[in-house]
Automatic annotation (TrEMBL):
InterPro entries per record: Cupin_8, JmjC_dom, JMJD6_ArgDemeth/LysHydrox
JmjC domain residues: 174-337
Region span, Disordered: 1-38
GO molecular function: histone H4R3 demethylase activity; P-TEFb complex binding
Protein name as annotated: JmjC domain-containing protein
Organism: Polarella glacialis
PROSITE patterns on file: JMJC (PS51184)
Signal peptide: none
Database matches in Pfam families: Cupin_8 (PF13621)
GO cellular component: cytoplasm; nucleus
Organism domain of life: Eukaryota
Compositional bias per record (Acidic residues), positions renumbered to this chain: 1-11
Amino acid sequence: MTCEDEVDEDLVLSPMVDTDSDEEESPGPQVTVQSRDAEKSVYADLDAKCDKATHPFSSQLERLTHGDPLTDPEQVLSAVDSPDYCIERCHFADLTVAALRRRIMTSRCPLIITGMGSHMAPGSQALGLELLSELLGLDCVVPVRGQGDIKWIEFLERLCHCEQLYLADISVARHYPWLFQHVRIPRYFLHCFSHRTRHQLSMAYDTPALFVGTPGTRSSLHIDQMCSNFWMFLSEGRKHWITFHPDDTKLLSPTLDQEDQIYRFRSLSELEADPEASSSLRKARKIEFTISAGDLLFIPHGTPHEVTNLTATCAISANFFDQSNIKESLEQTARRLAEREPGSERHSNLALILNALEEIDWPDLEEDLSPEDDLPRSGDEMAGCFPCHEPLKWRKAVTFRTP
């Protein structure tokens, strides 16, 4: 699965999953709510608490993750001809779990939730490039899109030389499970159906995923697989998002990937350079916005989006399924299953997913909510861990002997 990316693109609990392919199934964690200003101050001070002099790339990383705000692209916070399609910002203290889940059922607009920063990073330091260096170790091997496996120290060196590298959609559970000591899941999304099946699905270990990108790297226009909603918490840097209303997908000149039953797109720059495609593109409802460190972003299922890293960035993201998209997800999975050869591994994997999600009579939203979901919660109560991830946080890295 992926988040910012479509389902497209070492302690390894199982072989690294190609997120373009189908999921493999296998058997198998009272405080007063702070004011908005106080919360912002707490998160802004997290990096200052670490000893930057101990890190070999401190000054370069600080420059790359802060960048020059004057170079940020223009933001279009509501569609030109349809102001109802817009991006909104809301502090978590003003948004209960129940309120967000009801909103997801009725709105096709993205949402930025603020104030979660220090609660998503339970330690004294945000999960940024410097903390990752401590947790992974400079000799740790990381899979980089289009580059294969390279050492983390090489990734940092090339990052500081402004090479365009993207460590994208790397499963925390499968690759670096000890990061769960520093990564939490927003309570808004802990109800995900993929974690509530009778048989544990391997896809429950695919996300949350780690994204680390250098300035200028991007995920070209796409829609996430399996009609999944997703969220992203940006712990460091700035990302620029362009999203389109899901109902306007066909105005973006897509082609249907018959095997995966999903639309594929050319990049926005290619569409804009094509006279016919650009004419259609201009009719689509579009918004553009930038998220910064500490922001938690929600994107509804079926949303075409393109994302650019304005600075070096570090983010955690995950797909999820609930009452808002389970019907569409099951329908798409059934169509994908029909395209697979019976008896093949891909057919078997998809059948396991479909059966596990389809056999449950999922409750209506209001039946699924608890009385506490309608109540404001303290920041520390607004993030947690999926049960299947809880024991993974104590796993340690494996060091292989030199031949």
